[in-house]
Amino acid sequence: MATTKEGKPSKMYYGWWVYVAVCICMLLPCCFTFNTASVYYDSVAEAFGVGKGQVGLYMTFVYATACVANLLWAGKLLEKLDLRIILSTCVVLVGGALIAMSLAQSIYVFYGAGIALGIANAWLLWLIVPVVVGRWFKKNIGFMIGIAMAMTSIGGTVFSPLLAQVIQNAGWRTGYLIEGIVALVVCLPLAAFVVRSRPSDMGLEPLGADDPKVIAREAEAKAAGQDGITLKQALKKPSAFILCCVFAGLANLGLTMNFFFPSFATSIGYDLSVGAMVASCVMIASLVGKVILGWLNDRSIVVSNLVGCVPMIFGLAFMMLFGQDSPMWLYLGGILFGLFFAVQPTNVPQVVRAVFGNVSYDRIFAYVAVVMPLCAAVGSSFWGFIYDATGSYNIAFIVDMVFAALAIVVLFAALAAGKKLKAWAKQDAAK
User: Fold this and answer.
1) Contact, 28 vs 155, CB < 8 A?
2) What pLDDT is recorded for position 341?
3) How many CB atoms lie under 10 A from the CB of residue 209?
4) Which residue ranges run through the membrane (predicted)?
């Protein structure tokens, strides 16, 4: 049972309402930004007479803007401003951008919309979930992050085939318009009236703060002098920080291949419905993967990342080698790739927490989050330009498989560097 700061029992813990509101924002505006984007690429490219790489370039603007926002203001404002203001701003920006895209008469409108989407998702995709969960809850943090991040996959699974039908029957403009209106109507009231920044705003403690294991862990951290690494310490001995950034970058660069699976399917002779089904397979697997990886993160960071990265290599190989034989190989490859798709939103925050601890987690993760959209910005158009240059996605698939393998190597290096950093920080604190 949840308690107030005065120790009195309360009704249903209010943090659950905040958590549900954030999950719905992941399900709709965040999903509409990323998880349904790929179903529009071919139609938009044909409408404007441009290449797929030029369409994918608007996602580069999304990621590049998010990178700048994370570097300059997103993390700082998340600490200072009321979460209602930040989340309401995110919803308005996403909804408005999608409506603008529905009315666009030039691809350049998409690039402008990408800037608005990037500002919103600097908070929405990369920061809000791990920070809010960490503020309101003390137990099962990895699992809860996984559930929240799985909302984008649920949305992608449900909405991708529906939007493919809308595009075929009513055109891509109608699809974007529906997304924008739904995001505003459903999520703006939740953002403005339901969410709260911290438990203290409601006179509450974080849920699980009275758990004996949590108390023991915090007492151990207090006895050690601090619960993790400060930002100053992390930057003074930057190897662990750099390795976390590299890991996060590889995860983000690799997952952007998902945007091009519908295009890959059409490039080898299938119609858009097969491509949309591949995207749905990715989302279904990502949904399950985020829950599984979140659960594993509370037990073993290493096992969780192996489960996330290794199947992706096989999935892309199956799609590349056997995809033309049967669409079932594409669906299987999409499922295996979906596990890797779950690594960035679910595992990267917990890898950073495992390496640096809690004392300066919000600020350190905000800086790691700079790298994620930066690398995703490259990937969102990089794979499309490879196809435009070669007429095939084979080279792109091989490069992406190498990135997944490198991510595993970098993970082990980051965890080892984190142990050395904590030992140094303990000695430094004792001086």
Assistant:
1) yes
2) 87
3) 16
4) 12-35, 55-73, 85-104, 110-129, 141-164, 176-195, 240-261, 267-289, 301-322, 328-343, 364-387, 393-417
